[in-house]
Amino acid sequence: MIQSDDRKGLLATISNFFYTRGFNILRCQQYTDLYEDKYYMRIKLDLAGLTITRAELEKTFGGLAEELALVWSIQYSDRVPRMAIMVSKTSHCLYDLLVHYQENDLFCEIPLIISNHPDLEHVADKFKIPYYCCSIKKGEKPRQEAEVQALLRKHHIDLVVLARYMQILSSDFIEGFNGRIINIHHAFLPAFKGGSPYKRAWEHGVKMIGATAHYATCDLDEGPIIEQDVERITHELIPDDLKRIGKDIERWVLTRAVKAHLDNRVIISGRRSIVFPN
User: Fold this and answer.
1) Confidence at residue 214, expressed as pLDDT on a 0 to 100 scale
2) In terms of Cα–Cα distance, which of 216, 251, 214 is closest to 231?
3) pLDDT at residue 229 in the model
4) pLDDT at position 68, please?
5) One-character DSSP codes across 19-68
6) DSSP assignment, residue 150?
7) Which end of the chain is more exposed for a tag (fewer CB within 10 A), N or C?
8) Contact, 124 vs 116, CB < 8 A?
9) Which residues of the chain have pLDDT under 70?
10) CA–CA dist 219, 127 (Å, integer)
11) Are 98 and 255 in contact, with CB atoms under 8 Å apart?
12) What is the pLDDT of residue 131?
C-alpha cells in the first residue's frame, strides 16, 4: 500500500523498481485524488524465486520511499492476521462474521471472542471459539479494559472488530490499536444518538435507513468510513420493521468492511479511507 502527493512518474518509477529486481507484478491498482492532489497505489507481487530476504527487500524499497516521500506498508499473504471480536448482547453481526469465517471467506484466525456480558457464549460454543466475559462493574472500567488489552496481547491480535460492542473505548485503548479497530453502527448519526434510534427515526418519518462501518478513533463514531449501505423504506413499516432491516444492513456492511481490511484493500488517509475493489 502506497500513498503520497501526486506527481508525474510515480507509477513508472515504482513499477520499474520491482521490474529491475525480477519481480512479477500480479496486480496494480491506483487512484489519483485530483481534488487533494494525492496518489494511492495497491500493488501485489509474486515473491516466488525471491533472491533476497524480506528484510532486505523492505530496506531497499524504504530507500526509494524516502526519496519519493511515500507513506507505505507491506503485508505478506502467508501471514494470517489474528482477529478478535468484541460483542455485548446482540448476535446478528457476530453470527455473520463467524459464518463467513467458517466458510473461509475471511482471511484470518479468530482465537477469541470478548464480551462484557455472558449472553453470547452459546454462539461462540457453536463455532468452537473461546469466549471471555470481561464484565464491567461501576467504577471499574479501567480495570476491565486492562483485562481486555491483556487478552489481546496474549493472543497477538492484529484486528479488533466491535460487532455491536456497546461500550465506549478509552483513548489509550484506541491509540494502542490505531487503524486496527473496526466499528459498526446505524447510519443515522449524528441524528438519533443514544437508545432506540429506529423508533425515533420512525417518529421523524425517515425514508431510508442504513449502516456505517468505520475505523474507531478517539472522536466517537467519526473515524474513517470503510463501508456503508442503505435501504429505502415506506410509511407502512413500524419501528420493529426498521430495526429488523437495520440489523440486516449492519451485518452485511460490517462483514464487507472486515473483509476489505483483511484483504489489504484499505488505505487510511486522514479522516477518509480509500477502499480498492476486489
Assistant:
1) 96
2) 251
3) 93
4) 93
5) HTTT-EEEEEEEEEETTTTEEEEEEEEE-TT--S-HHHHHHHHHHHHHHH
6) H
7) C
8) no
9) 189-190
10) 34
11) no
12) 98
Active site residues: 221
Tell me the backbone φ, ψ of residue 64, rounded to 5 degrees.
Answer: -65, -40
Dist CA 21 CA 47 (whole Å) = 11
Residue-level pLDDT at 190: 64
C-alpha cell of residue 143: 480495570
Predicted pLDDT at 189: 63
Cβ proximity of 121 and 101 under 8 Å? no
54-68 and 10-19 are packed helices; what angle lies between their axes, rounded to 10 degrees? 160
The C-alpha torsion from 234 through 238 and 240 to 243, rounded to 10°, is 30
- What distance lies between CA 87 and its chain's CA centroid? 15
Q: What is the DSSP letter of 168?
A: P
Question: Residue 275: beta bridge partners?
Answer: 266
CA atoms within 13 A on the CB side of 104: 0
Q: What is the pLDDT of residues 140-150, one digit of tens each?
A: 899 999 999 99
For residue 230, what is the enclosing H or E element?
Answer: strand 225-232
Residue position matching grid coordinates 453481526: 93
C-alpha distances in angstroms, 28 versus 40, 89, 273? 11, 42, 18
What is the DSSP code (8-state) at residue 214?
E
